[in-house]
Amino acid sequence: MKRIHFIPVLIVLFSALTFVSCGQIKAKMEIKKGNEYYKAKKYDEAIKHYRQALKHDKDFDLVHLNLGLSYMALYQPGSTHPKDVEYADQAIKEFKAYLQKHPDDPKVNEYLITMYLNAERTDDAIGYFEDFLKKHPQDTATMQKLAFIYAKSGKFDEALKWYKRRTEVEPNNSEAYYVIGVICWEKAYKFADVTQEEREKLINTGMDALERAVKINPKYADAYLYMNLLYREKAKLISPDPNLFPVPDDKVDEYNGYLQKAKELQDKAVELRKQTPS
Fold first, then answer.
1. Is 29-120 in CATH node 1.25.40.10?
2. pLDDT averaged over the chain?
């Protein structure tokens, strides 16, 4: 009796294994055809074969990556044409599908980020970076990218928060402090809607960061250059233009002192650059 029951079970198992094996073989054949079309830059045709591969083996993770790359190749960065919007949607969808099984693949993470940025999906990019940093809280490269996107989208306070977070992880990195000085100067210098009080706070924040940068690296020419620019902004707090707004008598020494300090720092930056081999 045992033999009678055992043989059919073996037959069923063998049939299942044969079925799975055939599916995988067919999937690989479709992938091979897709790869040939991809190399020939016939991305639409490549996509058809990759789709067929998934029908034969839905668990073939690599197909999602190939599909994502094909859609990304078809997409025209910055385009809002419905076809390009569809290509962007599909590329993002396929990269995310691949990353579900391979979340730490650096190249595919970069592909996904590239698609978010090229398609100007800032909120999606921000969400992706913040989720990534929850899992990798020490990843300063991602902090830098996230801060840059926030700054680019006009969210200065969020950008500054992440630039500062980077200095907490890398307290001895002069470049991390330098970046804070630069964005504080840009905000103080370029944005007319900043109040006098906010401008003063920006200048002080930027100056503190740059002083930390040159303490770590005393030959940091660019840091001295931006300190020079921030001292000029300090002078503007007293008078944005002395020809139109005369410097008050009780502020003349302070005003001239800021400009003198700015000149000294500018000269120091120039001298350090001369010492640096090109």
1. yes
2. 89
